Structures are given as C-alpha cells and as structure tokens.
Amino acid sequence: MNREGIAARFHLDYPDFALDVDLLLPGRGVSALFGHSGSGKTTLLRCIAGLEQARGRLRVDGETWQDGKHFLPTHQRPLGYVFQEASLFPHLSVMGNLRYGLRRVPAAARRVSLDDAIELLGIGHLLARRPDRLSGGERQRVAIARALAPSPRLLLMDEPLAALDQARKQEILPYLERLHGELEIPLVYVTHSADEVAHLADHLVIMDDGRAVASGPLSETLARLDLPIRLGEETGVVLQARIAERDARWHLARAEFPGGSLWVKDPGRDIGAAIRLRVLARDVSLALDPHDRTSILNRLPAVVSGLSEGGHPSARLAQLQMGDSLLLCRLTARSVDALGLETGSRVWAQIKTAAIIE
Amino acid sequence: MSEANLTALLLSLKLASVVTLLLLLVGTPIAWWLARTRSRWKAPVGAVVALPIVLPPSVLGFYLLVAMGPEGPVGQFTRAMGWGTLPFTFTGLVIASVIYSLPFMVQPLQNAFQAIGERPLETAATLRAGPWDRFFSVAIPLARPGFITGGILAFAHTIGEFGVVLMIGGNIPGETRVASVLVYDYVEALEYADAHWLAGVMLAFAFLVLLALYALNPERRGQGR
Amino acid sequence: MKRPLRLLSILLLLASPLATAGTVKVAVAANFIKPMRAIAAAFERDNGHRVQLAAGSSGKLYAQIRHGAPFDLFLSADADKPARLASEGLAVPGSRFTYALGALVLWSADPGLVDDAGTVLRQGRFEHLALANPKLAPYGAAARATLQRLGLWEALKPRMVFGENIAQTYQFVHSGNAQLGFVARAQVMADGRLSAGSAWPVPQTMHPPIRQDAVLLDRGRDNPAATALLAYLRSAPVRALIRSHGYALPAEDAAA
Asked: What domains can you pick out in chain C, each with its CATH number?
C-alpha cells in the first residue's frame, strides 16, 4: 500500500552522542532496528515519532512529517508507539487507556476497530481492570492494543519485550506475530535480541554508534559476511519456507525454500503453510563428499560464496549459496585449510537442526 | 457563639475559599512551569515564590502596605484604574493572602508535576493528544495528590494567617476582621473567655484539616507501572 | 601563663558592676520605649545601676507578668493594668503613679489636609480615618471619646480602620493608606515641633486623660535599683525629657 515506504534522514548532536542516519524502510512488514544499547536505535525511533527534534527529513507513505521548514508535532503524526515499559495511564482503566487515543481520531479516519484490537491481543477479560492490577505481560498487550486503536499508519515499538522475563516474552511473541500476519500497518521495531529479529523482522537495520551500518531484507542482511556487528553464537540466517510434505510416521515435515528443502520437526501445519526457519552458523558443517552413513538428516549441495574471519583466530565463517538462498557456516581455520576451501568450492552442507519459528 | 465570632469565622472561611480558588488558577501554571522548565529563570522564580515561607509576615505585610498604598507602585496602578487603594479592603486581603499562601500551593503541585515525569506525556502525545489536551487529560489527573495537598495547605494557611492581615486589614468587622485577628484582639483586651471560644474552634478546625490531609493522601498509591 | 590572667580579668570585669550596683528589669509599653531608652541611659550614667528594657504591648507584658516574667518595674500604656496587678497582689500597691499623659493629635502625612481646628473631619475629604483599636489601646479609647464628643463617631464609622496599637495606626497614616488618623503626639513631634505633614492637637478636654502608669512589681520590691529608677522617673530632668518627647504630665495638666 505504501509506495514510498519510510524515508528518514536525521542528524542529531548531543554532547556525548551523535545520530546520523539516512534510511529507506519498506512500507509494509516489520523493520527491525537492531543494535547494542547506546547504538542509537531508540533515539532513531523517537526521531521518527517526533519525540526528539532532530535536523533532517522524514517522509512516511508519501507524506512529509518533517523537513527543513516543517516539523509535525508528535500528536499530529498518525502513529502508534509502544514503549519498553507499558506506560499505561494509571488513572484510567484498561478500557479508558484503549479509548484514550481512539477518542482523539475522527470516526472517518478509524480503520482498526477497537474490538479487533482487543481480540487480537486477547485482552477482552481485562477491560474493567486498573493498570496496577495487571501482570507485566498483560500491561504490554494493553499498551500494544492502545497503540493500534487510533488506526495508526505506522507502528513504532521500542523493545516492547525487554522489560519482561522469558515466560512473559513467550506470552507476547505470538501476539506480535499475529500482528505481523494480520495487519497492513508497517512496524518499526527496536530490539537488541537476535531471537526477536529472527521471529519478527522482514527488513533489518543494524545500528552502531549512531549510524545505520547495514539495511536490507532480513535473510540477505543476516547472511552478510561483512556484518559489522558480531552476533557470536547467534550468527545465522533465516529462511522463508513452505511446508511441502509431511512424514506422519517420523513426525517430520519437509520445508521448501528457494534453493532447497530441509526436513524439520513437523510443526503440525498444513501443506503450503509459510514458516520461518532459523539456521545458526554453528549448526552447519561442511563435507566434500556426500557421506552415506550419518545421523544428520539434511545434507544439501552448495557453493562457497565467501569466507571470512570468525571472531577468533581459530574460527572462520563461510557463506554458502544454495540456489537463491544463503547459509552461514561456522568452522575452524584448520578445516578450511584441510578441505582446501575457497570461494567457488562445491561442498555438501550438513544441517544439524533448523529451528522453526513461525 | 457571639455574632462577632460568627462574622469573623465566616469571613475567614470566605477569604480562604476565594484565596484557594485563585491559587488553583494562579499556582497551577506557575508550578507546571517550574516543574518543567530548563530556563535560567527557574531558580530566581522558585526563590521568589518560596519567599513567604521564610519571611516574617510582618515584613511581607509591611511591604504590601507600602506597595499597595497611594505612593506605592501597586497603589498607583489601582488608583489609575479607578479602583482606589487595596489596604483595608477584602480584595486587598485576598491579594495579600494569595501572595502569602502561594508557596503552599505551588510547592506540592510542583513536586506532583515533577513526579509524573516525561513518559505519560509522551505517551499521550503518541495517542494524538496536543499540549493542552495532555495537560488536562494526563498531567492534572496524575497530579491529584498535589492538588489535594496544595489546596488544603493553602486553605488552612489562609485561615491561620495573621500577621499580614493585621498589617493591611485595618480590623474592619465583616470586611477584614478575620478570626485569627479577633482572637488576638480578645487576648490583648484580656477577654480570655471569648478568646478560648474562638481559639478552640480554630484549633479543632486545624486538626480536622490535617486529619483530612493525612487521610486523603496515605503514602503513595499504586505499585509502579 | 597569659590565658588564665586574661580569663581572670574578664571575670573581674563581669563581676565588678554586679558587686557595686544592681540590675533593674523594666517592662515598657511600646509607645514609651524611645524616651525610656534615653532615661535608662541617663540613669545608668548617674546611678551606676544597669537597666534592662523589654518593650511590648501593655496587654502582652501584663500577661507575661501574671505568668511569672522576671520584671521589677512595669511602665504601662494605661492606668488599668498596673491597677489590676496591684489588686492581684503582683505589684506594690502604693508604688503606682502616672509617669506620663498621652497627648492625641489628628495627623496626616499630607501637609495641606489637616487644619488646626480639626474641621477636616466634618468636611470628609478623606477615604480612611485610622485610629487605634479602642478596646485595646488607650489612644484608641481617647480617639473614640473625641469623635463621640464631636458627634461624628457613628457618621465616620464606615471609614474607620483600626490599628492594633498606636504604632500600627501611625504606620497606616504614614504610608498614606489612611489619609489621616488619631496618633500620639509623641510619634509626630521632634524637638517640640511637628516633624512632617499636618496636625490638629486634640485638646485634652475632649477625652479622659490618657494616663500611663508605672508600678513597682512584687519581684522588684527589695531591689534597690528598681526603687531608685522609680524615684528617678519623678525627677525634674526626667519630666522635662518626657515632655520633650511629646507627652504631658499630671501637674502640667492640673495647671492647664
């Protein structure tokens, strides 16, 4: 729906911090702003919301929110914002919170129904409660529904799960995934969790020291060898796949992606369902020959499309091309030498596990 | 109770009510500004507002008497406007009391506004609320404890005010002779029985006010966000 | 070696006046504090005793004395309170005498307002008339008597503002908030002349005399310094000094 997407160019100079970005984000799906704390991702989000007054330009969906001459104040920007802490108004009930933004939008501009938002976040039973009678997870769900209620044209979320414990995160992630699946609203999502990126993002922006050091579609960006930010054990790619076949006897399913397919635990989804597969670099090993007898189920032909340092003198990271898809593989420098690997080498990639995400 | 006592008590109540109402109107924007400004004028303005807390009422009353007098700047202005001078009038007492009780309204309010922090207001802005809207729909409800404390303190302080009233009031029954001044008169005139009556009523009143204050504002409400 | 010597000399310095002379503690009505300071200084010079003055409204001083305040002598602004103390057994009955008579003036800070016959009161070219609270201050009672005598008390009532004492009344008039008021002659006279504004000296016949009485308090009964000061107050030079401050004296009154 948004031909232009989000075009943001910001400069901000604080005594101890400078933001300098020039980004184009897609007008649909989830764009994750990923980086360490202090990398400027939250500041960038606040600039988009107009909570921070940076110099620069911002166009959303073909509309100018900010340029050299004009600055649309936050309350005139059709956005929804979810803060790290739910920040519900303590003097209003859940319903009062939900209606706060809704009431301030003319009926003609309402595209999201409040009932849908309540249903989507599963908070129908909480409406009469006071915010201080809610659990942390419930509060954050109410905050998300509250941001949706005024029918924003852009959703902004600032680490909405960071303040929650693991159990609460698992409680909310499915709601966010539903949001992703069912809403047409583009979402800019700040996080420092690679796991959340793998779950939610379609587009990935990597922030470091106030700058956007990488920006692109999720799979491509994650598979880059020159990623300036180290993910360590979480280095890996995300593959967009579909269920192509189910093996009832062994409870397995074959997930097909552009360039190959993998046997994974049967997620119980129908044939043709879209899923995400997360393949970590440490779970991929290489062989020159297709060994016959091994416990590893998934063995795919690939071409080495790049090699790089692996974060330790003993380690290397290999990028593998499989049709239209890319994988990353962590291996030792000694193995690289022993197998005589170089760009263009034909190899067999053995994938120990692939996590199904969606 | 004698008619003089009743008149004085009613006058005290009327004065305190009018002053509290005016202080809500005057004190709220000052407290809001003090709570949020980063201006270099914050410290001087805060100090001026707090002056009545440390100044003896006689000093304040003396300056008010001079300033509001025909030769003073305020007096020259009110005379030029055709309003006469303010001392010895109920209006004059109201203005003096507003000044004198200002910090008792502003400081609790300022603290309450500061305690709100930036976040609820930012949240409201992302939910389409403009600056005035945010102020009335978020800041004021969240500052409720400050309004209760400030209102009660300002009211009670005006009832108990004595020195300033004595200086600029002129002791006119029904106009400027409030209860606290009348008690003083009784004591000075050695009319201790009347003094006891009126002083007793005021003591009971002060106790009830403080009781209400503590009952309405127990600790801090709510457990975090 | 040096330090004990110095200490000793300080002790001697402190002790010597005590050894040779007494101290008298005097409670003085606020309106008389200025002449009393001059009198006390002269008394200390002539007699070697020490005088400690505490000024306040007569009502407050009276209440303090009743509750055991350590005064030897009480110079009240009226005749009533010393009499009460005597009848309550807190003062020496025979010691009471009038040390000064207050003189009332109708005064304005405006040099052209008050004529020397007080007709301004009838013309009414003023907004507020200040007087001391008649219930509390003898000057207020005298002002009320004067206005009643002139038949103006009821008519002027709406314009009256009341000072708690004669000092505050003076302040009302001095600041111009009240255009005129009844104040003490002592407040507006300097060196026997009007220091500012315009005034009508109210004839003593218009009101009962404003008698300011002194009394020896029970606590000062055996204090030689107290009895000495009491006698000193009646001496000719002191009477002259009191007159020069704008007060009258009983003998003078009788002569007039």
From this structure: 2-101+211-251 (3.40.190.10), 104-201 (3.40.190.10)
